[in-house]
Design goal:
By secondary structure, this protein is of the alpha+beta class. It is 23% helix and 34% strand. The longest helix has 12 residues.
Length: 363
């Protein structure tokens, strides 16, 4: 297996051996070998919703931006304010091209008045790394940084039991530096599941010991990409490269509420024009009438006329029916619009995000 991975230039996270020992089903994801599932997608999904699961997210990118000039340079490429972000706060944003296309969606954390920690996706990592270095002189710390997500209603109790007392007062979308076994780590109260959760950034050498200690907790089970996908889809969270990319603007992606229209950034003029014209397709929640799921690539029809395409779709284990996302005209995106999808004219209806409304993420 090792020789095959090396021949294909597929990367392994610091937790690869831990996954193999647990019998995980592995797959390649944006050039990384990651677990799809351990005990099963449905079991891992429900465990996350009810207790606590841990996810290997070491494939993601991490960058440090130092100084007001670097932060201002980033601010010129994203759709909201970074300079005035308070220390200890996190902010969701997107790096945009000049026409508003999404190069990558990111989370920025304000570590001090003049320092940002930026987390990026694996798919566009190389392009984003070049942009952040060229424009912001960012320091790429990806190679030495592991990322482990601890998610679920019991996640706070789990981390406190591990001795991470500094995380106790964290509110949603805040972060702090803390120590574990004498090494510094960064913890943010963020996540991709819709549940109370934390994203832990720590040195690679500490990843396996931390993973072993977390998974030894009686409330915790490891979870893979399969459950991560159903959990995020129930919340209406996007997957870069599938639901959003450079061919979709922030408005089309349904993220207009995040845009700071008073901020100056290089795609603002285009997005203002698009907003005023109002003629575009927008990412919209769709659900089926039963357990069948609208699948990515399914064409969407309104009164027999093709109007869009499904980008993500799955059975929603917590809601009990098929759910998905599709790009359809703004005028058809209001909740309750009846449509059909796929080769067999599956009946679907538009629905507001999130599909699952009982998540503990803000609790």
């Amino acid at each position: 297996m090792k020789a095959v991975l090396e021949a294909r230039n597929v990367k392994r996270t610091p937790l690869y051996d831990e996954h193999i020992l647990r019998g995980a089903k592995m797959t390649e994801f944006h050039g990384w070998m990651l677990p799809v599932q351990f005990k099963g997608i449905l079991e891992e999904h429900h465990h996350t919703r009810s207790k606590c699961s841990v996810f290997d997210c070491c494939h993601m990118g991490e960058f440090r931006l130092k100084g007001p000039k670097a932060i201002r340079s980033l601010e010129a490429m994203v759709f909201n304010d970074m300079i005035c972000l308070k220390v200890g706060r996190c902010r969701y944003s997107s790096i945009l091209d000049t026409c508003g296309g999404i190069i990558d969606d990111v989370i920025a954390m304000k570590l001090s008045e003049d320092e940002l920690f930026v987390v990026t996706n694996a798919g566009p990592y190389e392009k984003v790394a070049r942009i952040l270095y060229r424009v912001c002189l960012a320091t790429d710390v990806t190679a030495g940084t592991a990322k482990i997500d601890v998610q679920g209603p019991l996640s706070r109790r789990v981390l406190l039991d591990l001795g991470l007392r500094d995380i106790e007062p964290l509110k949603y979308f805040t972060c702090c530096r803390t120590q574990w076994q004498g090494s510094e780590m960064l913890v943010s109260r963020t996540g991709y599941t819709g549940e109370l959760g934390y994203e832990v950034f720590l040195p690679n050498a500490l990843a396996a010991p931390f993973w072993r200690e977390v998974t030894a907790h009686p409330a915790v089970e490891p979870a893979g990409l399969g459950a991560r996908d159903t959990l995020r889809l129930e919340m209406g969270y996007t997957l870069y490269g599938q639901d959003v990319d450079e061919s979709h603007t922030t408005l089309e992606a349904g993220m207009g509420r995040f845009i700071d229209w008073n901020s100056e950034f290089h795609a603002k003029e285009f997005l203002v024009m698009q907003r005023e014209l109002g003629r575009y397709k927008v990412r919209t929640g769709i659900r089926s009438m039963d357990r069948r799921a609208p699948r990515p690539g399914y064409e969407v029809f309104h009164e027999g006329r093709p109007v869009g395409v499904v980008t993500s779709g799955s059975y929603g284990p917590s809601v009990g029916y098929g759910i998905g996302m599709a790009y359809i005209p703004v005028e058809l995106s209001m909740p309750g619009t009846r449509l059909t999808a796929g080769p067999k004219d599956m009946e679907i209806v538009t629905e507001e995000f999130p599909f699952y409304k009982n998540g503990s993420f803000k609790g």
